[in-house]
Amino acid sequence: MPSRNVSLRLQGLQKKDSGSYSCSVNVQHKGHDSKTVELNVLVPPATPACRLLGVPRAGANVTLSCQSPRSDPAAQYQWERLSPLPQVFFPPVLGEGISGNPEAVAGEGV
User: Fold this and answer.
1) What is the full DSSP assignment across 56-104?
2) Is the pTM higher than 0.90?
3) What is the per-residue pLDDT across 2-23, written as a single tens digit (0 to 9) for each?
4) Helix, strand or coil for residue 42?
């Protein structure tokens, strides 16, 4: 082989391409050496789908739901009321293996 640099080019990466890749070098009469590289393919979140559940009437309860069908690492969500008074709502942290939509509860004085 004419070059001392042999590269592996991966095109169109997918999550399933994540893993360990090892490069082995054999030099005749000099021995063998290898190095391993860890590849972790990140998946950006898809455009979130958001909706309102319930009837927005005084005294009623409503749920604002927002989710992304895919992302790695998992997407983090935050709701923010923009007006008349700005307010940020932080959802609870979901542990590994727990599914569902984070929920933020708000009311007067929250």
Assistant:
1) --TT---EEEEE-S--BSPP---EEE-SSS-EEEPPPPPPTT--S----
2) no
3) 567 778 889 999 999 999 999 8
4) coil
